[in-house]
Automatic annotation (TrEMBL):
Molecular function as annotated in GO: catalytic activity
UniProt superkingdom: Bacteria
Organism: Helicobacter enhydrae
Family annotation (Pfam families): PNP_UDP_1
Domain Nucleoside phosphorylase: 15-179
Gene3D superfamilies tied to this protein: Nucleoside phosphorylase domain
Protein name: Purine-nucleoside phosphorylase
GO biological process, one term: nucleoside metabolic process
């Protein structure tokens, strides 16, 4: 099943699950427990922590983190897992087809905020985390809980810096178009 955040990032072939970690987890859980689901494919925009990644590039991910900037500065801790990897022993045909596209892979960080701090972005890049998307950690958490294979396909809409929102707004329509084309070419 294809899912997306909604709120301006809709696809006619995908179910909207809501924006942010909480809303997406609640709606996706309800959706998955009310229907027979073989696997989840999340489609969405992503901010890039790496200024060398071209805007509008497509990525695939099966690996998400939930790391806050205060954690990187040593100002907080968490008793919950900060990392999820999915997609072991995949049998879901659509997921296999997406992986066969040989898109670059990335670790995606999620939080309820859009990063505008280039220092934070550099710290994430140094840790090997290239992208951020508000919902993806929740998607993988729900998939893991329900033993479903899952992955995300992302199009880079902006850089994580002071112009993040303006870049996102400028690129949103092309991001949606590119994601549609990628999925329709399966």
């Amino acid at each position: 099943m294809f899912v997306c955040a909604g709120n301006g990032e809709e696809f006619e072939f995908a179910q909207s699950i809501g924006v942010g970690l909480v809303e997406s987890a609640i709606h996706l859980s309800k959706l998955c427990t009310s229907q027979q689901i073989d696997g989840l494919i999340f489609l969405g925009s992503a901010g890039s922590y790496d200024q060398e990644i071209p805007l509008l590039e497509l990525f695939v991910s099966t690996h998400a983190t939930q790391i806050d900037s205060s954690f990187l500065r040593g100002e907080s801790y968490t008793p919950i897992p900060q990392e999820i990897k999915n997609l072991e022993n995949v049998s879901y045909e659509t997921i296999r087809a997406i992986l066969s596209l040989n898109l670059p892979q990335a670790i995606v960080n999620s939080s309820n905020y859009i990063s505008t701090d280039s220092v934070y972005a550099s710290a994430m890049k140094e840790r090997g985390i290239l992208l951020e998307n508000m919902e993806f950690f929740s998607v993988l958490a729900v998939a893991r809980r329900l033993a479903l294979p899952a992955l995300g396909v992302f199009c880079v809409s902006n850089y994580c810096g002071s112009k993040a929102h303006q870049e996102f707004v400028s690129n949103r329509i092309e991001v949606i178009r590119r994601l549609k084309v990628a999925i329709q070419n399966l």
